[in-house]
Design a protein that fits this description.
about 50% helix, two-stranded antiparallel sheet, seven-stranded mixed beta sheet, binds adenosine-5'-triphosphate, alpha+beta, 23 helices, binds magnesium ion, globular
Length: about 450
């Protein structure tokens, strides 16, 4: 690393450091920005550590837009043009409560102390006027591609269990290995992982699922004893033999193969991971000795919903992932115009395309990949788009006002009738024509 490298960093952080220096404070760029810069990765947040106290930081940057919500923990955000700098007073954390938040924040005079509280060597470098400060030889770990704890791994994991998931997440994002003793520590404390907040587990798991090679993350979680705690229903698929002539892999390996074949979309990846979780509970062996799993898609969908609710995923995401799982077996029947129109009404175009993605990945991960039905579905989808068929209720040639004018009572009935009309048109039972629709409504609902 030379000073030239540092100048190449396109973020004008030097201005921020200079201003703090001029007022007599130490200041350094720290954390993920240096790591990602040295790895040639895109930089997301810019963290600066300084000897200045929050109130001093506010004074130094009196002329900038400041965000002070983190002031109690020592952080002031300074907005400068397109960049936001998170400036934090050097800290030396006290003992931890609730596995995550230090009981009290101790400000420290020294950068070294501040770097010592950071989780992994590659996250504990600083960059100041004199160049890079690397007290834990992170440079070597970056070269060897290793995630190593700062200090004693057992102590560091015990004081904040989130670090276990962060280790797996960084290993996946950066394609690094987790150092041996850190692995031992993570395993030792895996049973306690659910003591940390559900939201934090959710966020780390989401990041792991969205990496290029999510199966590696899932295998690491399994190896370290974390999968059993976080996703027990996924962990029971490990080694599960489907006794099926269509499948050459156990259920876990199959699900991971599906996962890796899916685009980077959280609902799809969660659906891929959970799509067969209902299989172990629905399995029956038929007269030919073949495993059968009637209705497993609906059970898998319920299992996914329960788990994602516990982890506080958003309602929209849960709904989307659940529908994908519940419908992943739809491709067992040859697609027709009618079935695709119905799917479109339920899922919308984006949803149908995602469903095809899941079905393709699932089929490609079986012994006899036959994609012809999904190809047919796509062709039909394109045809339907060229037709004048109102797929969404809002595209019908009539609306609620028309129904009221016919004498229908205001309230939920109007929505139900509109839905019914949409379905009948999609099924070809009435024409997409205003007059015909109104006649139909008058005949059928005239008395309401
Ligand atoms: P990314 O932004 O990609 O998640 P990052 O390294 O910036 O990566 P942040 O969570 O933003 O990660 O944290 C910033 C820095 O704070 C880290 O680089 C690390 O030095 C420190 N840090 C974050 N979380 C912890 C933790 N749980 N224990 C110790 N240090 C931590
Ligand atoms: Mg960050």
């Amino acid at each position: 690393m030379t000073n030239k490298d540092l100048i190449d960093l396109k973020i004008p952080y030097q201005n921020i450091l200079n201003r703090l220096n001029k007022e007599g404070f130490d200041a350094y760029l720290v954390g993920g920005a240096i790591r990602d810069y040295l790895l040639g990765r895109e930089i997301f947040d810019i963290d600066i550590a300084t000897s200045a106290r929050p109130s001093d930081i506010e004074k130094v940057f009196y002329d900038k837009k400041l965000i002070s919500i983190g002031k109690k923990f020592g952080t002031i955000k300074v907005v400068d043009g397109q960049f936001i700098y998170e400036i934090t007073t050097f800290r030396a954390d006290g003992p931890y409560i609730d596995q995550r938040h230090p009981k009290e924040v101790h400000f420290s005079k020294s950068l070294r102390e501040d770097l010592l509280r950071r989780d992994f060597t590659i996250n504990a470098m600083a960059l100041g006027k004199g160049g890079i400060i690397d007290p834990f030889s992170a440079g070597d770990d970056l070269k060897k591609k290793i995630i190593r704890a700062v200090g004693d791994p057992d102590i560091r994991i015990r004081e904040d269990l989130l670090r276990s998931l962060r280790a797996v997440r960084f290993a996946c994002q950066l394609d690094f290995a987790i150092e041996k003793n850190l692995k031992v520590a993570i395993k030792k404390h895996a049973k306690a992982i659910n003591q940390i907040s559900k939201e934090r587990i959710r966020d780390e798991i989401s990041k792991i699922l969205l990496t290029k090679n999510p199966s590696r993350g899932l295998r690491l979680l399994e190896e370290l004893g974390l999968l059993e705690e976080i996703f027990p229903e996924v962990s029971i698929m490990v080694g599960f033999d489907q006794k099926s002539s269509h499948h050459h892999l156990d259920l876990f390996d199959h699900s991971l193969e599906v996962l890796d074949k899916l685009p980077r979309d959280l609902a799809l990846r969660l659906a891929g991971l959970f799509h067969d979780t209902g299989k172990p509970l629905t399995m029956v062996i038929d007269e030919n000795g073949e495993g059968r799993f009637f209705g497993h898609q609906n059970l898998s969908a319920d299992i996914l919903e329960k788990r994602l609710r516990k982890l506080r995923f958003s309602n929209n995401l849960i709904k989307e992932a659940k529908t994908l799982v519940a419908r992943h077996m739809d491709s067992a029947n040859t697609y027709t115009k009618k079935s695709i129109r119905k799917l479109l009404r339920k899922l919308g175009e984006e949803g149908v395309l995602k469903l095809f993605d899941l079905q393709r990945a699932d089929t490609r991960s079986s012994k006899t990949p036959d994609l012809s039905n999904m190809d047919l579905g796509l062709r039909i989808l394109r045809e339907i788009k060229e037709e004048n068929i109102p797929i969404k209720t809002s595209n019908l040639p009539i609306n609620g006002h028309d129904l009221k004018a016919l004498g229908l009572k205001e309230g939920p009935l109007i929505g139900k009738v509109l839905d019914l009309i949409g379905e009948l048109i999609v099924e070809g039972k009435i024409a997409n024509d205003k007059k015909e629709i109104l006649d139909f409504v008058t005949n059928k609902f005239g008395d309401h």
